[in-house]
Amino acid sequence: MIETIKTPDRKIAPKIVDAVNLKLQLKPYKKLTLKNGVDVYTIDAGAEDVMAIEWVFSAGNWYEDQNLVAATANFMLKNGTSTQSAFQVNEHFEYYGSYLNRACHNETATVSLHCLTKHVGELLPAVKELLTDSTMPEEELAVYKQNMKQRLKVSLKKSDFIAGRLIDVYLYGEEHPYGKYSKEEDFDKLDRQQLINFYDQYYRRGKFVMFVAGKLPGNLEPLLNENFGDLGNNAVASKAIVAQPSAEKKFRVTNDKDGVQGSIRIARPFPNRHHPDFLKVQVLNSLFGGFFGSRLMTNIREDKGYTYGIHSFIQNHIHESAWMVSTEAGKDVCEAAITEIYKEMKDLREELVDEEELLLVRNYMMGSILGDLDGPFQIIARWKNIILNGLDENYFYNSISTIKSISAEEIQGLAQKYFNPEDFYELVVV
Amino acid sequence: MIQFEKFTLANGLRVIVHQDTSTPMAVMNIMYDVGARDENPEKTGFAHLFEHLMFGGSINIPNYDEPLQMAGGENNAYTTDDLTNYYIQLPAENLETAFWLESDRMLSLAFSEKSLDVQRKVVVEEFKEHYIAKPYGDVWHKMRDLSYTRHPYRWMTIGKELSHIENVKLAEVKEFFFKFYRPVNAVMVVAGNVTTEKVKALAEKWFGDIPSGEKYKRNVPLEPEQKEGRKLEVKANVPLDALYKCWHIYPRLDRRYYITDLLGDILSGGGSSRLYQSLVKEKQLFSNIECYHFGTADAGLLCIEGKLVKGIKMEDAEAAVETELDKMKNILVAETELQKVKNKTESMMAFEDMSVMSRANSLAYYEILGDASWMNFELEKYASVTTEDILQESRNIFRKENSNTLYYYSGS
Questions:
Q1: ipTM
Q2: What is the pLDDT of residues A368-380, one digit of tens each?
Q3: Given CB atoms, is A397 within the 8 Å cutoff of chain B?
Q4: Which CATH topology does A30-228 take?
C-alpha cells in the first residue's frame, strides 16, 4: 500500500495534551546525616560524569554587625590558607577543571563545587581546608577592597543598579539586610580581624547543610564524613530584624542627565512563602507580568514598543518579600509605561480573566516546571529552595494543584486585594 | 559521544534527530545560515531585527507564542555574526505543535506593518539598553570598526547605527526572508524524548511541501592581512580608564583556532591565570582583566580588556600586558599549565552537554559549519595541542602589526 502524504491544513492547530494534565513529579532526595549531624540532601541522576556540591552556611548578611562583613568573609574564603596562597588554591581547583564558587545572600552564604565526578576525591580535602583554615591575608583584602570600590564606581553609572538599590531601601529600610547596600566607605571600614571573627563563628564553628547532585560516586557518604564530618555545625542564633519601609511612595531620580532610558521599579510588600496566598499569587503574577505572553509584555512591549522587556516577580526572600514590576523604558515613554502598568492592574481587579487565557497561563506554568525539572542540578535547586524556606514536598505538589485548580474569581479576588496603586512604591531612575 | 541520526528532505532541509529518553521534554532547534555578516553595509542590524519579526505572525498562524504556551512550551532565539537560531522546548507529547508553528513561519511570514513598526521600536530600546545606556557600551562598535576594514564583522549584530533599524521597509523584510529563510539554508534538530520514525513522518508532513529556495552562496569580502598596528583614543563619561587590545586570529575550522582558544585560557579565565595573577594580584595595575574571543566562523579577534587601577598610566598598563605576552612568545608554557586548560575545556563541555537544549544547539551549529558529527571530535582537537603550538601561535598572533589598541579614557 502506498501511503500518501496529505498536505496538512495549516490553519488548524495539531491536537495537544493540555500541560495541566501532565503528571509532574519531583524526584525525591536521599538524605544522609554526617557524624556531626550535618544534613546532606542528594540527587543521584544524569548521564554525564559530573556533579555539584553546595555547602550552605547560616552566614548571610543577616548575621553581620557591619555592612559587607558577611559578603567579604565569604569572598575571601578562597584567598589563602596557612599552607597555601590564593594562587595555589585556585590552581588546584582549576587544574582539575573544577569550579569553586561562593556567594553571599541575605540569610545564607554558600560555597559550591562543580567538577567531573572522577576528580571529587582530589577536591574535597581542598574545600575542607578553606572551611577550616582560611587566613584572609591582609594583602588579599587590600586588593579586594580596591577592586570592589572600582567596580562600584562603574555600577553607580547604571540606572538599573541605582534603581535596584533604591527600591529595596523604600521597601525595607536601609538598616534591614534586604535594604542595605554597599558604599565606598563601607569597604574602607572593613578590617581583617572582623572577617576572621565572622569566619570563625559562622563558618568554622557555624551551622551548615549540604546539597549534592549529579552522577554520584559510590563512596559519597564516607568521603563526606571524612572531610566534613567533624566540622563545627553549632546552632546559630538569628536576630529578629524589622523592616522600616519608607512613608513616601513616589520617587523620580536623575542619575545621568544625558540618560536615554529610565529604570522603572514599582513594588509593594508581600509576605513569604508560608502565606496562604503565596502559591495562588504565582498564577496571578504569571498572568500579569511573569512570562512572555503576560499582559504587561503583550501591552507594553509587543503593542506599544516602549521597552525591550518588562517583568513582574515576587522577590526571592525567606523572611518577607515584595512584589515587583521591573523594566527599562525609553526616557520619553516612562510615564506612559507606568500608566499602562496601573491600567493592567485595574483590568485584573475589575474584569474576570477568561477561561482561554487562564488555561494558557496554566499550561505555560506546567510546561515551564516540567522543563525546569530537567537534570539533577535543576532538581536539587528545587529541593534547596523548599528546604531552606522551611517547607516540604507538599509545597511543590500544592503549587501544581493550585496552578491546575485556581479559578478566575479567586484570581480577581487576589488582584483586588493586592493590586491597589496606593500600596505600591514607584520609582524611575534616569 | 553524542548519538544522532540525520536525513534530508527533498527540498533540502537537513534534519537531525538526537534521542534522549531520560527527559519528558522535546526540543526543536532551527538554525538558519544567515547572520549579521550577510547584511548590506548600509542596512546593518537587519538579521537581528528580522529575528524579532519572526514572532510577528506567519501566513496561516496570526500569533506564534500563544499556541506554543498553550502546549506548555517555551521558546527563544538569537542572532550572531554568523547565524540565526530559534529554539523551542515543550512536553514531548506536544511535539507536533512545534512542527506546525515552525513550518508555517518557514513557509511564509504574515509580513505585518504593525509588527515591523513595534519591533523597530523594541530593537531601538534594546540598542539603547545594551549599547548606549551602559558605561563602555560603545566599545565594540569602535573596536570592530578599528580592527576590520572590509569584512562585515566590522559592525555589531545589533547594527551600526539606530537609523539603519529605524529606516527598514517591509519590502526589504520580504526580500530577506525569501532569500535566506528557505529550507535549503536551514538545519533542524529535534531532540529529547522523540523517535526518528516520528520525526521523519512529522518533518515530511509539515516541512515537505515548502519550496526549497535557492542555496545561498556566501561571498563576504575577506579581510586583508593587517600590515600595521592601529590605535584609537577616546574619552567618555565613565569612571575608570580602560585598555582594549585585539589581534586577528583564525577561522573556526582552522586547527589553529583550538590552539588560540587554549592560549586565551592560559592568559585569563580563572584565579590562577597569568594576566589575573600578574597584573591584578601582584602588580595591581588592573582591577580586572580578561582575555577572550568571539568564536566566529570567519577569522575573528582575540581580545584583552581591562580596567586600570586609579592613578595607573595607560602606557604603563599596556607595557605590563606586553611583558606577559612576551613570555608567551619566548618561553614554553609548562605541560601542567597546558593540561590545566585542557582539563577545564573537558569539564566545560561535559557541563554543557548536560542539557538537551544545549546538545541540540551544538548539533545544529556543527552541521551549519559542515558536519554535525564534528561535535564529537572537539575534545581530540584540543587534546592534540602542544606547548610548542602555543609558543608558535603566540608569536604569530601577538605581533604589533596585527594589533588594534583602544585607550578608553574616563572624563567627559
A1: 0.91
A2: 999 888 889 999 9
A3: no
A4: Cytochrome Bc1 Complex; Chain A, domain 1 (3.30.830)
